[in-house]
Fold this protein.
Amino acid sequence: MKSRKPLVAGNWKMNGDVVANEHLFTTLRSALERTSTSRIDIVVCPPFPYLGQAIAWLSDTGIAVGGQNVAAADQGAFTGEVSAGMLADLGCRWAIVGHSERRTLFGETDEVVAAKTHTALAQGIGVIVCVGESLEERERGLTEAVLARQVDAFAAALAGPGRERVVVAYEPVWAIGTGRSASNDMAQQAHRFIRDRLALQDSEAAEQVRILYGGSVKPSNAIGLFSMPDIDGGLIGGASLVADDFLNICRAAAAA
Ligand code: PEP
């Protein structure tokens, strides 16, 4: 039995609408009334316009709500950005930071990811910081070098206030939305590398930090992945939009 409490987070990306969301929330609520999920933490991350709807539906269920992104700055002239303080004000407890789509499509650098991490923690928000190599980087044998660079950029957060709110998500880019998950052993190896790298900053905090796997997690592969010694749950994209799949993935995390 692992000492770290598993966490499953659903990243809806730019999907959903008021009616479809209501259906998903209703199913999640009624399933939770029948299943004990106290063994795990569950987070749902809808697009910004639906955060209020999610909080209204889920605040009494134990499911936390998070943003898919957060600004590096606290406030001011940053059109289109959403601050960590605003997320906290609304009742959000988490933000995803440095998702590979933010890094590749919106140019987020390691420095930006680190700044967002520190700002969110300072505002009381928990962070799910994403790292992971591209297919080309893996094929060129650069996986560990890429992970080391990405982890080192935010590792100081493990030594500062709010460090218990730091969660890392290992998401190999080639596995995101492709249906092609990393094997259990491949994922475990990367997770161990990330934990060892974080230990260079603070060995005690590194043993306690939750490291999630993300990339084509489905009910059928969740239990195998989550049973690996350094995998503490998952960051779920596509399957988080299908209530039964998401719930079965949560159950796998509770059973692992
Ligand atoms: C993600 O977007 O973080 C993700 C892991 O997506 P998927 O589960 O669809 O691969």
